[in-house]
Amino acid sequence: MSIRPETPCLLVDLERLDANIQAAAAHATKLGIALRPHAKTHKCPEIARRQLDAGAAGLTVATVSEAEVFAAQGFGDLFIAYPLWVDPQRGARLRRLRDIVSVTVGVDSVEGARALAAQVPGAGVLVEVDSGHHRSGVSPGDAGRLAEAAARAGLDVHGVFTFPGHSYAVDAAERVAGEERAALSEAAESLRTQGIEPRVVSGGSTPSARHVGTGTMTEMRPGVYVFGDAQQWELGATSPDRIALSCLATVVSHAGGNVVLDSGSKVLGADRAPWASGYGRLLDHPDARIILLSEHHAVVDWPDHTELPELGSPLRVVPNHVCNTVNLADELLVVHNGAVVDAWRVAARGANR
User: Fold this and answer.
1) Beta partners for residue 107, in sequence order
2) E strands along 50-168, which residues?
3) Could you tell me if 37 and 60 are in contact, meaning their C-beta atoms sit under 8 angstroms apart?
4) Is the alpha carbon torsion for 53, 56, 58, 64 positive or negative?
5) Is the confidence at residue 163, as pLDDT, over 60?
């Protein structure tokens, strides 16, 4: 890197980014299903464009405001994978969106479906199914009744979706992918018993994506795959040579015999799963672990067999949960052949409504 940027900052390795995008596209093509990546991970139109150019069918987003950001950038097929509660204000925003793009919304209750129908008649919806994560969604066997109620309210029921979030656990991905298949299959049949043919059967997460089978899903919606992070590294869903986003940090102290970096929780985010080995990892020093994280300090337990890096040294940190890290940043610095060649704005940063 010819001119070192001020730290802390987020770096995106362009070659790795494109390799991850192409690999996911090839995997979906091999399975014969659509890829609809979740843009909440990167929140960046430049990355979304690369995903669509590689064959993605559209984008997944989490909020209406994320949908507004990407619609304004010309992305025309958006799925809001969330059981929205649609009041008049949000309904007006959805109607404006529907005037310029194709937008589909998640529902997981009769009341939610009716509220949506009152504000956005004829809106396209997918019924959310709980496949074991126990966050939101109806049981698979109840999907048909909800779909029928939504259709009776005047909504256009496209099918069903789920998020197998319990795949974010050690040695769980293959088992969870099987549970996801079973739940989606039951839910799709539940719709058919109500006379509704599911045109879309949607699922997928980054840990479980490699275990997706054929015959049930019509599309998958992973997000983190585009960058990778320390969680995916530890779960075996990625490897260090494929991680495309890191936080460039500077060694500011050797207090306590540790390495202290200037990349605290206000840069990395504070997520740490119960099974995670630390608050983040170092891309070039896989045996090191961040053992303490405060707002502006990251304390690294350094391997005993190696010398501490000098004060002022740059180190690349892999955050635990890259979605949170990106949402804390204004821009991503794009690195190609070791040099910063561009800066991409995190256009949907803070788009939480």
Assistant:
1) 127
2) 59-61, 77-83, 102-107, 124-128, 156-161
3) yes
4) negative
5) yes
